[in-house]
Each structure stands twice: as structure tokens, then as C-alpha cells.
Amino acid sequence: MPSNEHHMWLKKRDWPVVQGAMDHPDRDLDLLRRKYKERDEHGRLPHHWLAAKAQTHTHALALVGVRSIGWNPEALTTRDNKGETPLDIARRSGACAEIIGLLSITPEEARSLEWKGMARLYSPVSYWLNEMRLWIESRSYADCHKFIDEHDDELVREVLKYFNSDLLQQLACYSQVFSESLMFLALRMIHRHPLALKAKDSFDFTALKYAGPGYALGYNACRELVSVLSLTPKYLSSTPFPVLLLLSLPTKHYEIYGTYNTVCQFIKHMKYDKAELVEIEAVLKPARKCDVCNSLGAKPCARCRNTFYCSPSCQKSAWKKHKKTCKAPTTPPATSSSLRTLHKGIALLNMCIQRPGAGDGPTSEVLGFLEVNV
After folding, report:
1. In a 10 Å sphere around its CB, with 0-12 CB exposed, 13-18 middle and 19+ buried, how is residue 201 labelled?
2. Tens digit of pLDDT for each residue in 304-334?
3. Which CATH architecture has domain 5-122?
4. CB neighbour list of residue 107: distance below 8 Å, 6 or more residues apart
């Protein structure tokens, strides 16, 4: 049987062309599935050639591998005219670890994982890029922030860099209504990948062209986002992230982002010193001794809260002397609610300090904490 075009593309390691054919909006899925079940004159499926040419890992290669297995799981155990499976060929030819791992699963495992499960394991950059596209289209910015917060910064940067400005253009197309979450997301994206501002798609459009009035397909992004997309990579590389927040968000948030700026600097300092915060309950509520007998576990005087007694009898015996200095405090004591808030803040800071990429500043979780409590 003669080779189909996918055999030829895979022989040439032309992964982007194969991916383009797989992703084309007018693709015929049934036809593609048939092509990935066709053998060439060597008795090889496209999977065999992918295994033979996959020495260098790329995100496009990983996605092509996942899609091809999704369309024909049985190919994992199919042998060519020499009796070799795709995994045999991959091992013999020194394929990259990602492709060997993908070809090591069984057809049953492939069917169980389905496309999304395999993509998440073996093509994570493509998987999360697709998820981010869907979240931005549905304006689910909280999900985008959660992805950035919970994943290694290297993965986040790779997702943002894949296809250059694809995600930033997507954001420009679905950002007609201003929100703090939208702006925070845009700033986090361009802070990690400034060159996305100048990258162009196949129509020679930048993200700003999609966002600006009268451009491209008629998208009209909010003026705040247009302003951010008008920044230059040079400016971004020389401007601290907290400053970008202060300049790009409404004046009413200055107090919050002023505090956020302080938190950023604190986290950078702690990260540099490899330090770790400790719980502060022992400082705020240390074990107290009775003012009369020095027993531990004493409770404060109900009026002044500065003197401690272990029992009513000790308090009564000391009252004659204590009443001369006993006065109600001028500031209210810390409540259990304020202590809980403080402990939550400490926990969030600890989390940020220990996380890779903490030098980029705190996370949206800290921002949310400040918006509620500052």
C-alpha cells in the first residue's frame, strides 16, 4: 500500500505540519482516523515512523503522538514487516523519553485515559494551552489564576510561550468588560512572556490589533487592557511587577496594591535568604504565669487583661494591690477572628516563599486575601 501524506510528513519530522492538519477547522476526523490505520509498503503505520524519528522532544511532537494514539490505540501493539512495534522502534532509534513513555502504555490504558488524559500526562504544555484557551473564552479568569498558582513556573512559561502570542490574542478577543481579575491575568501573562506583545499570528496581527477598536474581526477590548497591551517588552523588563499593578489598576485599589508591593518585596527577601516563616500563636498567646504563685496556664484579669491569675483565690488575694493599677485597655484585644485572619495570611506567605518562581511576586491567592482583609 502506498504511503499517505502523514507517513511522509512524519518521516521528515515535520511535526508542525502534521499538527496543523490535525487541528485544521475543516478537518475530516473520520478520514484522519483511517489514515492512521493505513500501512505503507513496509507494513508501517504512521505511528512507526513517528517512533523512528522522535529523538528530539518538542511540544508539537508530543501532541502529534497523543492524537495519533487516540485515533488508533491498537497501533501500540501493531507490528511492521520486520515484526517491530512502535515501542520497539522508539527504543532502538533512541527516541525521547516522552515518546517512549507514551508508546509504553497499553491500548486498554490509552482508551481509558482518552485524549485529554494522555495529553495531560505526555503533552502537558499543549493540554494546558487548550484549557487556558477555553477558560479565557468563557471568561473564567479564576481558573487561569489557579493554573498559574498551582503549577511549576517553568510549565507556566512554556504554556504562555507556545504559539507565541496565542493566549494573549485570545484574551484580547474576549475582554470587552473590565475586571480586576482580567487585568491581573493580563499582567501576569505579559510579565512572564513580554515578547508576546510583539508576536504576530498568521494574519500578521499582534494582540493589540485584536484588542484595539476597528481592528481585525471587530473585537473591542476594554480600554484598560488596550493600555496594557500597548506596553513594550523593554518597559516590562525594567519595571517591577508590583509597579505594573499600581499603574494599571484603578486608583481605588492603591491601598491594596501598595500592601501587595510590600508583600512582594518581603517574599523576595525571604526567598533569597532561604528563610521560613513560623506560626505566631506562641508570640501572640504565650503561656502565662500566675502573678501570685507563678503557676502556668493563668488567665488574664477580665478588666485590664495585663495581669494573670491561675484561680479566683489567687486573684482575690492580690486584688487589694492590683486594683490600684487595674485599668481597662485603650485598644481592644485581638479577637479570635483577627487571629484566624493573621494565621491565614502567614500560611499564604509561607506557601509563596517555598514555591518555585516566588521571585515573581505573590500569587492571586494573596491578592484575594488582601482585597478582603486590607
Report:
1. middle
2. 878 888 888 898 899 988 988 888 766 555 5
3. Alpha Horseshoe (1.25)
4. 73, 74, 76, 77
Q: Give CA–CA dist 75/228, Å, rounded.
A: 48
Contact predicate 61/15, CB 8 Å: yes
Residue 39 CB contacts under 8 Å (≥ 6 apart), including other chains = 1, 45, 80
Grid cell 480600554 is found at 223
Query: What separation, in Å, do the N-terminal and C-terminal C-alpha atoms of the chain show?
Result: 71
**Inter-residue contact 228 to 187 (CB < 8 Å):** yes
Directed axis angle between helix 241-248 and helix 254-272, to 10°? 170
In tens, the pLDDT along 228-284 reads 999 999 998 888 887 787 777 766 566 676 677 677 777 766 766 655 555 544 444
As to burial, measured by CB atoms within 10 angstroms (0-12 exposed, 13-18 middle, 19+ buried), residue 50 is buried
Rg (CA), the chain: 30
- Rounded alpha-carbon distances, angstroms, from residue 92 to 53, 63, 65: 11, 22, 18
Q: Kindly report the pTM of this predicted structure.
A: 0.72
Whole-angstrom Cα distance, residue 281 to residue 268?
24
33/249 Cα distance (integer angstroms): 49
Q: What is the residue extent of each domain of the chain?
A: 5-122, 125-239, 280-374
